[in-house]
Amino acid sequence: METFDHHSMGADIAVIEGVMGLFDGVSGVSDQGGTAHVARITGAPVILVVDAKSQARSAAALVKGFVEFDSRVRVGGVIFNNVASDNHARVLREAVETLDTETRVLGCIFRDERLHIPSRHLGLLTADENRLPGEFLDHLAEEIRRQVDLGLLWALANPQPTNETLSFDETKVAPSSDPVVRIAVARDAAFCFMYEDNLRLLQRAGAEIVPFSPLLNDSLPDDISGMYLPGGYPELFADALAANESMKSGIRQAVDEGLPVYAECGGYMYLTQGLRGQLVNSDNDVASQELAPFVGVFPVTTRMLPRRKALGYREIETTGDAMLGPKGTVARGHEFHYSEAEAMPSEVERVYRVKKNGNELGFEGYRYRNCIASYIHLHFGSCPQVAQSFVEACGKFKNQKH
């Protein structure tokens, strides 16, 4: 709730974008962490968006199932997408009206190739790569105004009281009045996947966030005391990243000097020996593909797979005192990638015990000097102490350096 309250402060209406299916959470028996769980926590009404392609009255059965599946979730309305014609829209509306529910059809959006947004293996193309032109946005806005009852949508946007409790620590990070350390954060087309709340919590703990680009810059920012390498698409920019020798050398030197560095997913890949090929065949044969050399902090290479390697929520617990917290620190996040790394040599320290829905997945969170790297995207909001500990580690490095 702290995250929602912060970002919706002063707004007339707040939109929470759902992910996957409405009730998809940590397992087949729990929606914890899923859209329905968030709706219950916030008391927000749910607006279903249903792909109506190749279905008519059957769409009403689908809507009825979502409405009645969990009475604690308030489905206020439905918007049908991919509607073929006026007649198709009429049938959909009539079918929903036969249901014994208060769910209303808010609109029917007709099939329109002009509204198509391209995607790739990890989802839609990012805004940095695919900036939507003004003509696209104008057309989208006009179609929404014409095909969706915005007045009814607005009327439904009233949160309900909720008794739902959170399962993670909501302890707040005490805000720092002035920045005490500068943390370099990789932000460009190759490194664009991060929780913005992680940056906010780092700032509250006393960090000044200093963006830089491993793609375009030839050196790290001046006077930094820490570094954050988030996820993204290093596989799409492997050649450019590999060619930036001065940046790679600067990062290697900073790590060797003990700079606190936190890297996740794509950031972890960037710290390995490199990426071997951007695609593999059905037999996972990559032997004939050249290596794009990366920073080389960790003694393994990575490769891309034709199928998803991992997707899901993760929980980590530190097995000893670490840059992100003392022994026993528990934080949550997610893992989603199409790449895999070679088996990490046993002499490389692991600082996380990883669980998925209570089941042990082994040990990860690889550490070299004061650098921790992992495939897991941690959400610092699940344990604000992580941000505090990272900033404190950066402060200690700064004091030792001076």
Can you walk through the features of this model?
The chain is 27% helix and 25% strand. The protein has a 10-stranded mixed beta sheet with strand order 7-6-8-9-18-17-16-13-14-19. Strands 11-10-12-15 form a 4-stranded mixed beta sheet. It has a 3-stranded parallel beta sheet with strand order 1-2-3, with helices on both faces. A hairpin with a 2-residue loop joins strand 4 and strand 5 (123-124). The chain contains 11 helices and 19 strands. It is an alpha/beta fold and 402 residues long. It has 2 domains: 2-156; 181-401, Class I glutamine amidotransferase (GATase) domain (Rossmann fold). The chain has helices at residues 2-8, 35-42, 58-69, 86-97, 134-147, 150-156, 196-204, 238-243, 245-256, 266-270, 385-401, and strands spanning 46-51, 75-83, 104-110, 119-120, 123-124, 181-186, 207-212, 226-229, 261-264, 274-276, 291-293, 301-304, 310-318, 330-337, 339-341, 349-356, 359-368, 371-374, 377-379.
Please supply descriptive tags for the structure shown above.
402 residues, alpha/beta, Rossmann fold, 10-stranded mixed beta sheet, 4-stranded mixed beta sheet, 11 helices, 27% helix, 25% strand
Helix and strand topology:
Layout: H1 2-8, H2 35-42, E1 46-51, H3 58-69, E2 75-83, H4 86-97, E3 104-110, E4 119-120, E5 123-124, H5 134-147, H6 150-156, E6 181-186, H7 196-204, E7 207-212, E8 226-229, H8 238-243, H9 245-256, E9 261-264, H10 266-270, E10 274-276, E11 291-293, E12 301-304, E13 310-318, E14 330-337, E15 339-341, E16 349-356, E17 359-368, E18 371-374, E19 377-379, H11 385-401
Parallel strand pairs: 1-2, 2-3, 6-7, 6-8, 8-9, 9-18, 10-12
Antiparallel strand pairs: 4-5, 10-11, 12-15, 13-14, 13-16, 14-19, 16-17, 17-18
